[in-house]
Design goal:
The protein starts with a helix and ends with a helix. With 211 residues, it is an all-alpha fold. It contains 9 helices and no strands.
């Protein structure tokens, strides 16, 4: 199966498809991640809205629309952003001669591990908020809200989900390295630098949010 191959042996996977990469599977992978993120955001919004007063419930529609738009477009923007950076860095640093379209395709394929990360995040969110249950203080009490936010930030299951997200991001970096090496016709160690620069910044930002 293609998805199993790309996460277990990305070098062979991309070598077999060199010159025959399509954006269609990549778009499908990114769309699936976006939909999972939207589902996770929806669960969070539903619980958050319960803490609002009746007069503020109309805000729920705005929050849901924002969550859907952010969940869908945010993932696609990130895909284009990382693909563009990989293409630019490969071209500038190592005279890579691959097409931007092929670079986008391998960037999309490299997001496969994030599907698993998204599923874990959705499952953890559902368990914590829908099954285990949490009590959100009234939004009219800023201090209570701040304490609640801190407690959620350090919730054991949510912390595990955050660590898993970083791990899957690194796994994506492993896949991207072989993909960029193949389509840009550069050495694997060179592709590791190309991928490593934006990936390191992304991981550090995730760690900063985590702590």
């Amino acid at each position: 199966m293609s998805m199993i191959d790309v996460i277990t042996n990305p070098q062979a996977f991309f070598a077999r498809r060199d010159g025959d990469l399509s954006l269609v599977p990549a778009v499908g992978i990114v769309l699936l991640i976006a939909l999972i993120n939207v589902g996770t955001g929806y669960l969070t919004i539903q619980v958050t809205m319960s803490a609002l007063s009746a007069s503020a419930q109309g805000f729920q529609t705005i929050a849901l629309v924002t969550t859907v738009i952010g969940g869908l477009f945010g993932v696609f923007v990130a895909w284009l952003f990382f693909g563009g950076l990989f293409h630019l860095l490969a071209s500038v640093l190592y005279d890579g001669d691959g097409s931007f379209t092929d670079t986008l395709a391998v960037t999309g394929w490299g997001n496969v591990p994030k599907i698993f990360g998204g599923i874990i995040a959705f499952g953890v969110t559902y368990y914590v908020f829908a099954i285990q249950g949490v009590t959100i203080p009234s939004f009219s009490d800023p201090q209570a809200i701040q304490q609640y936010a801190e407690s959620m930030k350090h919730h054991p299951l949510l912390m595990v989900s955050s660590v898993a997200a970083i791990a899957f991001k690194l796994w994506s970096g492993f896949i991207w390295t072989f993909g960029v090496s193949t389509v840009q016709d550069i050495e694997v160690r060179e592709a590791a630098v190309v991928v490593g620069i934006p990936l390191a910044i992304s991981v550090l930002y995730s760690v900063y949010q985590f702590v």
